[in-house]
Write a structure and sequence with these properties.
It is built from 13 helices and no strands. It is mainly α and 208 residues long. Helix 6 (82-94) packs parallel to helix 8 (116-128) and helix 9 (132-145) packs antiparallel against helix 10.
Length: 208
Amino acid sequence: RLLQDIVESHPSFRPAALNVGRLDIQQGHLDAADRGSNELMLQAPEDPQLLREAARLSIARGNRAEALRFLESAVTRDPAAIKPNLALIELYLEGGQYDRALQTALNLESRRPLNVQARLALAKSRLANRQQALALDELTKAARLAQGNPRQLAAVALVQIDAKDRKAAEANLEAALEQDPTLSSARLVLARLVAGNGQLDRAASHVE
């Protein structure tokens, strides 16, 4: 309610309005989210962040084509923006538009070469396009960039599992857990991974 009060008393304060819109979507209040989105778009119709939020609402309504238009517009206006690009790549991949996903990921990586998420998006896109060796190379680079960030290392490992590079995934999960033993999801993934290799005692040690 506090956020709503802030929005009503300061309608031009965009962060609060965006958060209210996200909450409305999470709670299924799509009509309210739609009204808020329209009001924001009137203020700044070409703002990439607002376009991404409009795409989020379109996805919640099941309108994938509209979401694509919003995200493509956001990326055109700010080609280096991480979140709109990642959302667009994910939507392309989900829709089987693998060539477009790869081209978008390549464009993003060229602008954000040191961003782990951009590298992961490129690796996923290469996997979808059956470019296994190139995908593994991107994952190696992503793991190097993620050193010192256990959550990012775990994220790299998940894609490495998809790429069938179980050895590298295991090493990165272990490194992530050494840095942050509280990452329970990474611990469970590692347990499943080593159990799949027949190392049941070792798997059990990760879930005790």
